[in-house]
Design a protein that fits this description.
The complex is a heterodimer. By secondary structure, chain A is mostly beta strands. Chain A contains no helices and 8 strands. In chain A, the strands form 3 sheets. Chain A has a 3-stranded parallel β-sheet with strand order 3-8-4, with no helix packed on it. A two-stranded parallel ribbon of chain A has the order 1-6. A two-stranded parallel ribbon of chain A has the order 2-7. The N and C termini of chain A lie far apart (about 65 Å). Chain B is mainly β. Chain B is elongated, with a radius of gyration of 23 Å. The chains are: A mainly beta, B mainly beta. At the A-B interface, strand 4, strand 5, strand 6, strand 7 and strand 8 of A face strand 1, strand 2, strand 3, strand 4 and strand 5 of B. Strand 8 of chain A pairs parallel with strand 5 of chain B.
């Protein structure tokens, strides 16, 4: 018998960039984030200056962890999970805040940082 | 191998979190399989000095 999740109060200030807050049960959850963060000295921005296709990090296959399927027997003597308050400032970049059961979660994030200077800052 | 889990009382007071980012999760509840993967890349060549070749404007 699956446990219930009981939360008295949830306060979230900001949920942005395809993130979510969900109460209830879910079978599959697959958050996926591709991020290119560019730090530039000159504030000029060209839309297709950094396409995802240009960088191998966004197409490289990530090795799946090999795990051994084991026999799990769960007994829920406690009927529910109790949480008093949840206070979150920000949820961003395809993240998820979930209250309730989730069967399968596959989360993936790919981040590339680029720093572009006019003058070498380290000289 | 067999894993026996007996869940008794689980009560948490207050949870305060500043940020949840890039495919991260905050779960209150049970899960069967959680598979998290992340790749991060900031190699030396990602430091660019001088103005890169600005692509020509698209034909308009």
């Amino acid at each position: 018998m699956e446990r219930a999740s009981i939360v008295q109060k949830v306060q979230i200030h900001t949920i942005s960039s395809s993130s979510m807050f969900q109460a209830g049960d879910t079978r599959f959850l697959t958050p996926f984030a591709k991020v290119i963060a560019v730090q530039k000295q000159v504030s000029s921005y060209n839309e297709d200056e950094h396409p995802f296709e240009k960088y191998a990090i966004f197409s490289k296959r990530l090795p799946l962890p090999d795990f051994e399927a084991i026999q799990v027997c769960t007994v829920n003597e406690g009927k529910a999970i109790h949480v008093n308050t949840i206070n979150i400032l920000g949820v961003a970049a395809s993240s998820a805040v979930r209250i309730g059961n989730t069967d399968f979660i596959t989360a993936e994030s790919r981040v590339k940082h680029i720093r572009q200077f006019e003058v070498d800052p380290y000289e | 191998m067999e894993l026996n889990v007996i869940n008794r009382q689980l009560s948490v007071g207050d949870i305060r979190i500043i940020g949840v980012g890039t495919s991260s999760l905050v779960l209150v509840g049970d899960s069967d399989v959680i598979n998290c993967q992340s790749i991060f890349d900031t190699p030396p060549e990602s430091l660019i000095i001088g103005t890169p070749l600005v692509p020509l404007a698209k034909g308009n």
